[in-house]
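FORM 7B: Structural annotation worksheet

SECTION A. Query
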Amino acid sequence: MAKETKSQRVERIKIEKDGLDVLQDIYLYAVTGEAVHPEDIDRLKWYGLYTQNRNLQDENDPTLYFMLRVKLEGGLLTLPQLKIVAQISEKYARGTADFTTRQDIQFHYIRVVDLPEIFRLLDTVGLCTIFAAGDVPRNVISCPVNGVDHDEITDVRDIVAKLNTLFKGNKSFSNLPRKYKVGVNGCSKNCTNHEIQDLSFNAIKTNNGKVQFAVSVGGGLASNKRIATHIGYVTPSQVVPLTRAITKIYRDHGLREKRNKARLGHLIDFWGIEKFVEEVHSEITFKMKDANELEYTNSKQRDHFGIHESKEKGKSFIGCSLNSGHIGVDGLNNLIALFEKYDANRLKTTVTQNIIIIDAPSNKAEAFAKDLEDVNIQAFPSNFRAKTQACTGLDFCKFAISETKGVSKRLVEHLEDKFPDFKERVSISVNGCPNSCAHPHIVDLGLMGTKVKNAQNESVVGYELLVSGFLEGVNSQFAQKTGIKFPVEDVNETVEKLINEYLKSETKTLHDFLLTKVA
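SECTION B. Predicted structure
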């Protein structure tokens, strides 16, 4: 009998027991101490759990540790929720905590025995981990300043809430071919990066002042490196039924034979966009208005840093940069202390691993921002810090080859020291492996984890440099390989050298200069 392929194994596991049904087993494993069955380990993803790398684990410690991802619906964390996630970080996760590109927060060193209490704590403040991972609809992303930004096209919080309600724990969508990412954008800057979502909705104002949503499908990175295709327009009331229809089509027709060919974009390429749209129309009771491409802001300018007056009277929002999403228990406690000091209650996470304080008192906003800066949460970040991202990396991820979080922190600090007056916004991604969790294909400088040869011709951990990626609707460009590879210890020097070469050149932009380095 032929050995199961990876895809066949996963599909069999999902059919034999739905991922949602593993919850009762989690409690059983926690109580009995029984080893988690290998096939249940796959199902644990449905509750946000991944086994983590043993890289930092004591060799005498046999414990099976997990990363736990908690969904922040709408990207929202309130002060009571902050206190709970800080408690979880300190008591159960060895002080770890990181914000993700899906507006979630995740912890490490989680033990199965602690999950019942962790789930209970999360439930006390309305948080959960359901569908935070697995072959399911992931957290629906949106602009973090929905409802408070004077420049927004429309407030989409109600639509996002309805979509999250549609998906949450819904067995109709608990067995998709692969992960499935939906975004809804009402922001004038298009800060949700619709080009790389499986399904996205971008708000526009028509000539008569009404709001419509541009629908785009099939975007993605890694094995589904594809810019989403615009297929038409719908009204606000049509967003949810269209989402239900497209998700159903993906569930029923997605290409499940190979895991690396199973995203929605692969189905669209296999069918052709005309057949896909025809199938969509057969599932809905209305017709999308004809497609008409829009112009979009370049991804390097899609942010909300600094202090801005809110629509809420007497309030401002403060957009802040973190170190590639890393916050940790100390950072969480710093935020809690400052929230209480300045009578704030809400923050939103962004798709670039940063945060926005939503309800800072306007008359104290500048002092608030200064205190945030003192704990390295910067409202006015440098052009190197603002758009730097990093994935989980070698410390905790089983797939990683290289370190990420520490590398990105050191690189940014080095560039700020060497080029304090650099005028251009530079997007940087440090990725621990050939996957695209930190989005290295859509930035100026993408560091892709790999094995390289050092000066002694030894194989060591390092990076390959990708350059000149960006998002801008149909004008988007994926980063290209340069053939430049270097070990971890040479990261700062390599990037510094590139910046110096650019400054000495006659090239008008860093983007254009980096293209001269393409292999």
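SECTION C. Observations
The mean pLDDT is 96. The longest helix spans residues 239-253.

SECTION D. Sign-off
Analyst initials: ____
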